[in-house]
Amino acid sequence: MKHFLTLLFLCIFLVCAGCAKVYLVDEKDAKQAIDDAEKSLQTAEDTKVDLPKLINKADDELTQAKRYYNRDRFSEALELAREADKNSKNAVSLPNEAQSAIEECDKKMNLAIEGGVDGFFPEEFKIASNNLKEARERADRKNYEDAKNLSVQASAVIQKAMDEVEKTNNAVAAAKTALVNAKEAKADQLVPDQYNDARDTLSEAQAAMEERQVTKAQQLSDLARTKAEKAVNSAKEKASIKK
Description:
Blueprint (H helix, E strand, L loop, with lengths): L1 H45 L5 H19 L3 H41 L7 H19 L3 H41 L2 H4 L1 H19 L3 H29 L1
Helix pairs in contact: 1-2, 1-3, 2-3, 3-4, 3-5, 4-5, 5-7, 5-8, 7-8
């Protein structure tokens, strides 16, 4: 019985010690978070950021965090202080981030238009253009978060279109190279049917590209390259038999 009571008291002591440790850690973390939030809020105010709603929200959150801290509600204080810190930092960074996103999107769109990419994906570019226009309007209304998100979305659409066109151009180039290799292997003489089939498929791919059918052009280019490579192998086999 004596050993049992000793063990019981030991367990209670360890549990209490653990709780005290967690309590102290939470108190320390909450205090640090509040200090960080105060610094971030001061920076935002000194920078004279023109986002009063976000600044006021951060101020309110910080005030409530301090109240929680004084009532020993450290977990809640920690959470609110971190939110206040985030909102203060966003108030400083969001305008610049939004402007950078708009400029990057505009630059990417102009580059794509110069390369004729918009002709391959007219609907996608219409959506991207509308998003960019809306992003500028949101930025003018100081809705920087939406402005940033709209610009990023538009940039992603444009980049995807550019990647698809580049991928297709590479596929066409690879098919042309394969056909040149086939001619060098005298496939046009040794296996003319295979060579002509590959050449005709490449012509179809180029025609699809001119018609702005990117997916079809890519598929046909890959098929033409495969046919040309098979023609090379067949030509080599036939040449070796003749020897």
